[in-house]
Design brief:
This protein has 15 helices and 9 strands. Bound molecules: ligand FSX and FE3-S4 cluster.
């Protein structure tokens, strides 16, 4: 990477309030998230710098969801800022200035211009019953839009549990026949489940993909680097659970965090995700650290299988 390009990249980040030091902090978090050793932090930083020159085109589709997955990265100034400097978002309904016919035109133009080259990120579930008539944008059903655009992409990422497995919209009785992108189209996208997805995992997948590294998936289509272990496996409260006495060593991080929440109905033991290490809100915290049991949000059908979230005792 040329020095002036590098400088431009860091200047842009600086304007977004992300210092070089912050950048390296997130490269370290990403390195851990990707299961690499600390000695790889420099390589990860270089890869992101290179990406910032390539800026792969991304077409981001919204179907049935709450936009929480977009919010999770847009509201994290640091990680979100890095993502927005390393990809070129050609179409994204939440952040684009255009609306109506103009927005439709920009979608069409982006797909034609980058046909076979863009990464399609899908957020939200797709209605399949009654020819998909439960969900439409600009007169076309989600199903029609997905069938038209997804095959033209170089790769498809299902962002969030809704896009991966149907999520909330697919909860029983699911009259609209909502499904995840993979099931609705009969393809295998990269499923980044979670309600919402951790933005760091999106960055990790984009890095691996552009580096032409194989992305190993689990049985549910999730990258093993991020979903290879349960939340429980890496939970900072685990010590209490293992010792069975629910008391951490005085002064230890575990003791500060408090007791294991298993008895409170925490689903961390059956939920695969890297929340305890990747964390949310620019690596500030995650549900269990904030004192709430895991509700299993990255598992298929969690709205049906992990509920009720609360019960009167
Ligand atoms: Fe679903 Fe994401 Fe939950 Fe919301 O898009 S995974 S409802 S956080 O926004 O899709
Ligand atoms: Fe979801 Fe559990 Fe992580 S609720 S955000 S998988 S701790």
């Amino acid at each position: 990477m040329k020095t002036d390009q590098k400088k431009e990249f860091y200047d842009k980040l600086e304007k977004k309030g992300v210092s070089r030091r912050d950048f390296l902090k997130y490269c370290t978090a990403l390195t851990v998230t990707m299961g690499l050793s600390h000695s790889c932090v420099g390589q990860i930083a270089e890869r992101i710098e290179k990406l910032a020159v390539q800026r792969p085109p991304v077409v981001w589709l919204h179907f049935s969801e709450c936009t929480g997955c977009s919010e999770a990265f847009l509201r994290t100034p640091d990680v979100g800022g890095i993502i927005l400097e390393t990809i070129s978002v050609e179409y994204h309904e939440t952040i684009m200035a255009a609306s109506g016919h103009q927005a439709e035109k920009s979608l069409h133009d982006a797909v034609e211009k980058y046909k076979g080259k863009f990464v399609c990120v899908v957020e939200g579930a797709i209605a399949t019953s009654y020819n998909g008539s439960y969900g439409k944008v600009a007169g076309r059903t989600f199903l029609e839009i997905a069938r038209d655009i997804v095959p033209k992409a170089a790769a498809t990422i299902a962002m969030g549990t809704c896009a991966a497995y149907g999520g909330l919209a697919a909860a029983a009785p699911n009259p609209g026949g909502y499904k995840g992108v993979g099931d609705a189209l009969g393809i295998q996208p990269i499923n980044l489940s979670g309600c919402p997805t951790n933005p760091l995992n999106l960055l990790g997948v984009i890095l691996k993909y552009l580096n032409k590294e194989a992305i190993e998936l689990d049985d549910y289509g999730r990258p093993l680097f991020a979903y290879g272990e349960t939340v429980h496996d890496t939970c900072p409260r685990l010590k209490h659970y293992e010792e069975g006495n629910f008391v951490g060593e005085f002064g230890s991080r575990e003791a500060e965090l408090g007791y294991c929440l298993y008895e409170m109905g925490c689903k961390g033991t059956e939920t695969y995700n890297n929340c305890p290490t990747a964390k949310f809100n620019d690596a500030t915290s995650f549900p269990i650290q904030a004192g709430h049991p895991c509700i299993g949000c990255s598992e298929p059908n969690f709205w049906d299988s992990m509920t009720p979230f609360y019960e009167e005792s």
